[in-house]
């Protein structure tokens, strides 16, 4: 009896899986634009935690972050029929929240620095989390890292957060922050050089996530 050949279907690669996720999210976005409340709720459920965490890196005022997030999602639903189709919903939401926060900070501050966010408003500088890490730092390496992070500019801190802890590409970060990709590379390089001057890069990668 002849043996039939069985063709095994190859497993999808990472690129294919990523493309499939993008396509699924694009379909979900279109459903949302047509009034699908479950699609709308899914975006809030998926990205609200990320948006809140990011917002708290822009300002220490958590109530402001909550208010801006509420306004953002309220406006999304209200204007859903006229919205475009972003290449990345996550990036669109992060950039929209950033713009709202900066406008709100500008209303409340007499002076906004050239990078858009006053040093005193940036949650990374003296956030409760950073204060806790600082008070509980048990090793010289941790104290060195905290001291090094405080030397970064607002822009350097924000770029590092978006690149390394939200897994965005330089092009995506440039779009969110409305600056050039070359600026992203240059700013990241200078930030890493500064941190490397304080301690070994391995320690940086191990501890940055908890300290920024």
Walk me through what this model shows.
The protein is mostly helical. The protein folds into two domains: 22-121, RNA polymerase sigma factor, region 2, helix turn helix motif (Rna Polymerase Sigma Factor, Chain: A, Orthogonal Bundle); 126-212, Arc Repressor Mutant, subunit A (Orthogonal Bundle), CATH 1.10.10.10. The protein has helices at residues 14-33, 37-58, 62-78, 89-108, 123-126, 128-136, 140-150, 154-165, 170-177, 181-198, 201-211. Helix 1 crosses helix 2 (37-58), helix 7 crosses helix 11 (201-211) and helix 8 packs across helix 10 (181-198). The radius of gyration is 21 Å and the shape is globular.
* Secondary-structure element series: HHHHHHHHHHH
Shape descriptor reads globular
Structural class: mainly alpha
- By CATH, the topology of the largest domain is Rna Polymerase Sigma Factor, Chain: A
Distance between the termini: 67 Å
Low-confidence residue ranges: 111-126
Helix content: over 70%
Number of helices: 11
The CATH architecture of the largest domain: Orthogonal Bundle
Give Rg in angstroms. 21 Å
Largest sheet entry:
none
Strand content: under 5%
Overall average pLDDT: 76
CATH superfamily placement of the largest domain? RNA polymerase sigma factor, region 2, helix turn helix motif
What is the class of the largest domain in the CATH system?
Mainly Alpha
The count of β-strands is 0
Structurally, the number of domains stands at 2
Labels describing this entry:
single chain, 212 residues, mainly alpha, Rna Polymerase Sigma Factor, Chain: A, Arc Repressor Mutant, subunit A, 0% strand
């Amino acid at each position: 009896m002849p043996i039939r050949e069985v063709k095994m279907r190859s497993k999808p690669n990472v690129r294919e899986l990523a493309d499939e996720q993008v396509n699924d999210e694009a379909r979900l976005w279109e459903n949302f634009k047509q009034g699908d409340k479950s699609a709308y709720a899914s975006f809030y459920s998926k990205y609200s935690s990320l948006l809140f965490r990011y917002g708290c890196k822009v300002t220490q005022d958590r109530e402001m972050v909550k208010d801006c997030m509420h306004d953002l999602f309220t406006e999304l639903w209200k204007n859903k029929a006229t919205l475009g189709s972003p290449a990345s919903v996550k990036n669109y939401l992060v950039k929209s929240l950033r713009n709202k926060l900066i406008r709100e900070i500008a209303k409340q501050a007499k002076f906004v620095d050239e990078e858009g966010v006053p040093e005193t408003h940036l949650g990374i500088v003296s956030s409760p989390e950073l204060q806790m890490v600082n008070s509980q730092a048990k090793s010289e390496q941790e104290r060195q890292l905290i001291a090094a992070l405080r030397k970064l500019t607002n822009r350097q801190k924000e770029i590092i957060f978006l690149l390394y802890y939200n897994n965005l590409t330089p092009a995506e970060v440039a779009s969110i922050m409305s600056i050039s990709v070359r600026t992203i590379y240059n700013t990241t390089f200078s930030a890493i050089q500064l941190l490397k001057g304080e301690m070994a890069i391995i320690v940086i990668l191990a501890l940055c996530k908890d300290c920024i």
